[in-house]
Specification:
- The chain is of the alpha+beta class and about 425 residues long.
- The protein has two domains: about 325 residues, 2-Layer Sandwich (BirA Bifunctional Protein, domain 2), CATH 3.30.930.10; about 90 residues, Rossmann fold (3-Layer(aba) Sandwich), CATH 3.40.50.
- The strands form three sheets. Strands 1-5-6-11-10-9-7-8 form an eight-stranded mixed sheet. It has a five-stranded mixed sheet with strand order 13-12-14-15-16, sandwiched between helices. The chain has a three-stranded antiparallel sheet with strand order 2-4-3, with helices on one face.
- Helix 13 links the parallel strand 12 and strand 13.
- Helix 4 packs across helix 10, helix 5 runs antiparallel to helix 10 and helix 9 packs antiparallel against helix 10.
- The chain is elongated and about 100 Å long.
- The protein binds one RNA strand of 77 nucleotides through helix 2, helix 14 and helix 15.
Length: about 425
Amino acid sequence: MQTQPLPGFRDFYPAEFAFRAHLFETWRRVCRRYGFEEFDGPPLEPLELYTAKSGEEIVGQLYNFEDKGGRSVSLRPELTPTVARMVAARAGGMKKPIRWFSIGQMFRYERQQRGRLREFFQLNCDLMGEPGPLGDAEVIALAIDLVRAFGLEADQVRVRLSDRRVLQALLRGAGLTAEQLPSAYAVIDKLERMKPEQVADIREDRDERFGPGVGARLLEVAALRGWPDVQAALAKVEGGAEAGAPFAEVLKALEAMGLAGFVDVDLTIVRGLAYYTGTVFELFDAGRSLRAIAGGGRYDELLKLLGGVDLPAVGFAIGDVVLGELLKERGLVPPAPAAIEVFVAGVTAEDQPHVLQLAHLLREAGLRVEYALRAENLGKQLKLADTRSARVAVVIGPDDRARGEVQLKDLAGKTQRAVALARVADDVKAMVADG
RNA sequence: GUGGUUGUAGCUCAAUCGGUUAGAGCGCCGGACUGUGGCUCCGGAGGUUGCGGGUUCGAUCCCCGUCAGCCACCCCA
């Protein structure tokens, strides 16, 4: 029997679980500040829910199998199809815009690497039913505040922001046909990882996918950085101003929220080739040594494709793996909370029933309590209390009992005082609340 | 799926040119310590050196395979 989990899967021992809980609790808190409601769907879905959106090739990356009823099913690799399915089923009855978030475990059958496992948790946020740019800005702001809540600021994390409508207008202006656009997106997406020779091939017309001079102009578009340069380029192409209008509104809104300092306008953010129709963004650590922390954008056609309901939508996902690595790297992991607040210790074996009674009384009062499960000398019991990071120790011995009292120890302050038995719960609560 | 690289105790690491019983720190368990914790001291448990094969008188060390981790590619919803 091996003690290791399957490749790409993780065990969460208490320390790791505490960190995971910290991520989830922070995510929930911030999402609720934006009025987003939590939901969840099944971890197992019909296989076709994914092949319909991504094609048969996706099956190679899925944990799919046939269930005992002969159905082709898959563990979920992402949440968007489930969202689309659920929203489509009840879209008519829901007030728009719909603000939903979910935290769930996803599964992808891929070779694991740093920041990429076969099992991971993802926060998925979607705003549905709003086509305007303030919806985009709302979602981008949420993504930024989600990482800010962990202590990451603009010097440590960057949003790279693009817009498919802007990119398309500029590429058409550069002489690309509608048919060449997918190839162009693929090139732009890969540009950073390409070898210099490959880039030269495109610049010097050795790439047969593009016409004479087109490759070089494509690279010029990809090299644009910052809104002023993008805006200037848009002014020179037909329909450019109209194509750039929503993007300008998004930037203006983020500026008004005071979050513009996080944003880099960068048209090389393409995000796959899939279903994005407008704004596209990714969050990265400022040093760019890790994979993307989060990614998303506007996908106005997807809900119609998957669920048959015509709703514009904008959303993103953020995973626990890359964000977790960044937080560890930056020393932003909070200490795990203590398991108990109070330790009850008895001096002699005769005190044991009183320890049990007192411990239960304190538990009834809502306190987190532990005591020694067998008779041990007091020093040893206090050592355990200390290891457990208890705030308070309650010591009860024959002399105390004779007086109807117990000793209350402040374990951090090294102070101790006698307290009447009847007052123990209240006094301990007060000490714990002082924190 | 392809290529490269690394695997020694729960964790971090050591072990001479291939040499005889694989060590240390931390952690864990017990004791010093039967009315007071963090310190200290003493003792103990814990290893198929990832696994399998080969070379050798002898392998943690060299070779092959395999599994796992890491890195790059593919992919990245």
